[in-house]
């Protein structure tokens, strides 16, 4: 076989302009030149770009020679006329040689598209609700050949290529087919497999070569600081949680106990030498701990891949990829499965509000502001130096919505806690006059974001019955947890940031001044059922100089722990579901640091161990007593007995369920003074029992309280005909129930 380079091309060969476009990486649609084509004379020709080869021969899949190709350009463009009978769809391979080295490969430019017209239509409409099945990198068998199908959305790009070790990171070798209808680019690359590293090389709208981009739809990425995407496909975990998923699909969480333990996977526990643990190890430890502590759910701070560890995951670039810091997608799935089999629900933080400016991410993806707004008054977040998604663009809203439902569907996540919702709802969020653009009606509401959130919540309810969404929303925006068909945003729950700020402000006061701030503990009841609330003591309250929860408490060491226990008792009995950040349950003393483990050695101290014992028992009681959870979202579940005793800083209220369930009486004494013979009106006579006392010795308290059965007297108090005479322990919350 003879190969040659010639300035005079064969008459039937491709023209020099298109050859130059290939070797300079400027060919917008490689299928115009590469692969089989009919010549002007009506015969079939084959064009191949193989810069590493000295000789190229087209062969049958069985290895028989079809025709040699001639080098028509010194940089590695080969062309040859095919014999009669060779046509589009004829299977062939390429045999190549350079020196003594010979190899064979399939030609990616002989294959038909993997994406169909319906994919294009649905992507353009923003209604491709399982977009992760089509875009990204998927190991497939296409037309009888194993390989990987790549697809990416980049409508303004002039050229998109997939690059990796398999092609020496040379963007000229595997440019993608352009699908003009929806701005999609795709290519089936034969002989690639799971584990291959790749990125997209993009020539932008103005002809500028962009930084190499990670795949927005990748299922696995390299461990930071590396930024490549890894061919993986959908995880291959075989689920064993069918009973849990069946149960989840029936009903909602509104009338169930929901006690959430918020966890940062990298700092909850570490190895003996401070090393980060993997999903398998963390999962086993978490199951044991959560079961022992009686939490119903665990909430993971964002597990989506993110480049900067110090962002704690709140600046993600891989919205479909569990972070590789702790292992593989299979290990993550197995951890979720293990938690489910232990009866523990799994919540993940999901971040659709903004994304980082890292060059390998979504920023300026195809040389234009594609995922973000071009105008910084709409597209740049000043607080976090991040970019804001363009929620009004169909394809962007579709991408984000699918990233949320993906975790619920494919990883069996039970709820999404949606981060920074307030920043999404308002165009002027954290902006001064002149720094934002009003909506079409002149208002400050982000109408596109509102529609996006409604659409996402609707899809969650439609696709994954029983799964929930929870909004971190800090304003008085109406109807956050009201159904969409009733004019709301459609979330199942909203974080009660007002309760958190008020109650923490109150508890940080010296007890002698608390009588002047009594309203901070009672005001939340005025709006407690305006939304379906979660009471959050989250990571945000124990970082950035705020100190630990324990060290917010005033007084000496004894009083700090007593205040902490009284506060937790009040929180667990207040209407609303519960969320507690890791470490708060045992009184972590230092502020949280994401780079080191929690201080588990503190449990050797009886005060810290006592606080942990209290949270364990509060969770058990909260689960076992319907009065404490069944009507969390219904005003019928709460009644003040005495909410106005500001002089003594005492709060007394009832929690109730249905008429056949015993009520619970809660009294919090927020001063260090023991109150003897404290009379309190109760709704029924007979004997009552103190179920829990945060001042009990087992919790590190002084042991003041009410033992045995406490008999009611026919003595009117608080507008009731019967009452109890109690001893109120100092800085403590007690819970009593009637004996029936």
TrEMBL record:
Q: Which Pfam families match?
A: Alpha-amylase, Alpha-amylase_C, CBM_48, GlgB_N
Q: Which segment of the chain is annotated as a signal peptide?
A: none
- Which superkingdom, per the lineage? Bacteria
Put simply, this protein is called 1,4-alpha-glucan branching enzyme GlgB
Q: In which pathway does it act?
A: Glycan biosynthesis; glycogen biosynthesis
E.C. numbers: 2.4.1.18
**NCBIfam families in the record, alphabetically?**
branching_enzym (TIGR01515), PRK05402.1 (NF003811), PRK12313.1 (NF008967)
Q: Might you name a Gene Ontology BP term for this protein?
A: glycogen biosynthetic process
Name of the gene this protein is made from: glgB
Q: Which SUPFAM superfamilies match?
A: (Trans)glycosidases, E set domains, Glycosyl hydrolase domain
Q: Which UniProt keywords apply?
A: Carbohydrate metabolism, Glycogen biosynthesis, Glycogen metabolism, Glycosyltransferase, Transferase
Q: What does this protein do?
A: Catalyzes the formation of the alpha-1,6-glucosidic linkages in glycogen by scission of a 1,4-alpha-linked oligosaccharide from growing alpha-1,4-glucan chains and the subsequent attachment of the oligosaccharide to the alpha-1,6 position.
Which organism encodes this protein?
Limimaricola soesokkakensis
| Catalytic residues (UniProt) | 419 (nucleophile), 472 (proton donor)
Ranges for domain Glycosyl hydrolase family 13 catalytic come to 262-616
Q: Does the keyword Transcription regulation apply?
A: no
What this protein catalyses is: Transfers a segment of a (1->4)-alpha-D-glucan chain to a primary hydroxy group in a similar glucan chain
**What are the GO cellular component annotations?**
cytosol
């Amino acid at each position: 076989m003879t190969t040659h380079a010639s300035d005079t091309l064969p008459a039937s060969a491709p023209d020099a302009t298109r050859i130059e476009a290939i070797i300079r990486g400027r060919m917008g649609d490689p299928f115009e030149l590469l692969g089989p084509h009919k010549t002007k004379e009506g015969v079939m020709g084959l064009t191949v770009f193989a810069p590493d080869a000295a000789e190229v021969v087209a062969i049958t899949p069985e290895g028989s020679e079809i025709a040699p190709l001639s080098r028509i350009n010194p940089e590695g463009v080969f062309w040859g006329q095919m014999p009669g009978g060779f046509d589009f769809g004829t299977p062939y391979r390429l045999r190549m040689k350079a020196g003594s080295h010979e190899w064979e490969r399939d030609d990616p430019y002989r294959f038909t598209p993997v994406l169909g017209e319906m994919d294009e239509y649905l992507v353009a409409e923003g209604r491709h609700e399982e977009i992760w099945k089509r875009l990204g990198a998927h190991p497939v068998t296409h037309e009888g050949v194993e390989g990987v199908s790549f697809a990416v959305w980049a409508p303004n790009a002039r050229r998109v290529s997939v690059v990796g070790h398999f092609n020496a990171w040379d963007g000229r070798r595997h440019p993608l087919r352009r699908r003009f209808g929806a701005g999609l680019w795709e290519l089936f690359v034969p002989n690639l497999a799971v584990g291959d590293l790749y990125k997209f090389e993009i020539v932008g709208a103005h002809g500028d070569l962009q930084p190499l981009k990670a795949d927005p739809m990748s299922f696995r990425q390299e461990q930071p600081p590396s930024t490549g995407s890894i061919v993986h496909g959908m995880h291959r975990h075989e689920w064993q949680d069918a009973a849990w998923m069946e149960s989840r699909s029936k009903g909602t969480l509104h009338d169930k106990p929901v006690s959430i333990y918020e966890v940062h996977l990298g700092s909850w526990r570490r190895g003996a030498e401070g090393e980060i643990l993997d999903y398998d190890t963390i999962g086993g430890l978490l199951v044991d701990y959560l079961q022992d502590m009686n939490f119903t759910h665990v909430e993971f701070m964002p597990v989506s891949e993110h480049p900067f560890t110090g962002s704690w995951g709140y600046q993600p670039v891989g919205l479909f990829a569990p972070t590789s810091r702790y292992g593989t997608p299979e290990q993550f799935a197995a951890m979720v499965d293990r938690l489910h089999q232990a009866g523990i629900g799994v919540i993940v933080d999901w971040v659709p509000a903004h994304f980082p400016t890292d060059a390998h991410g979504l920023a300026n993806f195809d040389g234009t502001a594609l995922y973000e707004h071009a105008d910084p008054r709409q597209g740049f977040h000043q607080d976090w130096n991040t970019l804001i998604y363009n929620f009004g663009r169909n394809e962007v809203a579709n991408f984000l919505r699918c990233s949320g439902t993906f975790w619920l569907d494919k990883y069996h996540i039970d709820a999404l806690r949606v981060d920074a919702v307030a920043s999404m709802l308002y165009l002027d969020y954290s902006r001064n006059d002149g720094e934002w653009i009003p909506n079409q009606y002149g208002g400050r509401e982000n109408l596109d974001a509102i529609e996006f959130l409604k659409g996402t919540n609707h899809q969650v309810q439609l696709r994954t019955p029983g799964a929930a969404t929870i909004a971190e929303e800090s304003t008085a925006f109406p109807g956050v947890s009201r159904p969409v068909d009733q004019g709301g945003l459609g979330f199942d729950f909203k974080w009660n940031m007002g309760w958190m700020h008020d109650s923490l402000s109150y508890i940080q006061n010296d007890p002698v001044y608390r009588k002047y701030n009594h309203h901070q503990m009672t005001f939340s009841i005025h709006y407690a059922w305006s939304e379906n609330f979660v009471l959050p003591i989250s990571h945000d309250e124990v970082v950035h100089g705020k100190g630990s929860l324990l060290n917010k408490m005033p007084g000496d060491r004894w009083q700090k722990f007593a205040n902490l226990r009284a506060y937790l008792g009040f929180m667990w009995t207040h209407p609303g579901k519960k969320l507690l950040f890791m470490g708060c349950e045992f009184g972590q003393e230092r502020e949280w640091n994401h780079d080191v483990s929690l201080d588990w050695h503190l449990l050797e101290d009886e005060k810290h161990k006592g606080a942990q014992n209290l949270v364990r028992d509060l969770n058990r009681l909260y689960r076992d007593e319907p009065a404490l959870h069944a009507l969390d979202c219904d005003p019928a579940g709460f009644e003040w007995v005495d909410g106005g005793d500001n002089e003594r800083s005492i709060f007394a209220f009832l929690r109730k369920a249905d008429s056949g369930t015993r009520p619970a009486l809660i009294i919090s004494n927020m001063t260090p003074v023991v109150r003897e013979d404290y009379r309190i009106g109760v709704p029924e006579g007979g004997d009552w029992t103190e179920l829990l006392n945060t001042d009990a010795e087992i919790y590190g308290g002084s042991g003041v309280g009410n033992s045995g059965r406490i008999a009611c007297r026919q003595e009117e108090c608080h507008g009731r005909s019967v009452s109890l005479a109690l001893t109120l322990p100092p800085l403590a919350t007690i819970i009593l129930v009637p004996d029936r």
